[in-house]
Specification:
alpha+beta; Aminopeptidase; nine-stranded mixed β-sheet; 9 strands; globular; binds coenzyme A
């Protein structure tokens, strides 16, 4: 077991460590352009870091979106990265839990994610076919599109997720 994980909002001095983290967590995928764009956004994002000692062990982003231009606030979770040396020690879980709490407090109705259902299922995410992603997913990713709904608040949402500019790159969705 590693030391205590401190979760806090990302500060400007974290950016260098975040930029070093992503290529190690995702050696075959270049998420840095997306991460940089989201970090540069001045509104509608939540960026949290997990710190162990003085090391940045993980990072998570949430982006506030809408569904079919309705007034409900929802958020998209991602990316999430944990440094290989710190994986399987609860850092990812701590970042997800902390972020979800803040998103619920901020009034989100649901959180969406495109990720491994084996992992996100642990946090109450389940495949969603009411809200569609902004681009057509490959067939084999169908179960990877999931949502977590906060409470029973008015039935399932229907329509297309409307995402801000950093997420409007088909390659992020089409594999
Ligand atoms: C996936 C990732 C974010 C998980 O973070 P983490 O801090 O390692 O995970 P946690 O310690 O919170 O949870 C670990 C548990 O989840 C499981 N787990 C990890 N990745 C999983 C996956 N893709 N599918 C199913 N289970 C997974 C582990 O087996 C472990 O289970 P155990 O506790 O029963 O042994 C991290 O491993 C990572 O950054 N990986 C590389 C980048 C990546 O794939 N990110 C996915 C974001 S969509």
């Amino acid at each position: 077991m590693i030391g205590t994980i401190d979760i806090r909002e990302c500060a400007p001095h974290d950016v260098e460590s975040i930029e070093a983290l992503y290529p190690t967590a995702f050696p075959e995928e270049d998420l840095l352009p997306l991460v940089r764009e989201l970090l540069a956004a001045t509104r509608d994002t939540l960026s949290l870091v997990g710190i162990i000692g003085d090391v940045l062990a993980g990072h998570i982003l949430f982006t506030i979106c809408s569904v079919a231009r309705k007034p409900d606030k929802v958020a998209l979770l991602g990316p999430l990265a944990v440094a290989p040396a710190c994986q399987r020690q609860g850092v990812g879980a701590a970042l997800i839990h902390a972020g979800m709490r803040r998103m619920e407090t901020a009034g989100m109705r649901s959180i969406f994610v495109l990720g491994d259902p084996g992992y996100y299922g642990r946090f109450g995410f389940a495949p969603d076919d009411g809200v569609t992603p902004p681009y057509r997913l490959p067939e084999e990713w169908r179960d990877a599109w999931q949502s977590h709904v906060f409470g029973d608040n008015g039935g399932p949402l229907q329509g297309e997720l409307s995402v801000p500019q950093p997420w409007r790159h088909p390659a992020l969705w089409e594999g």
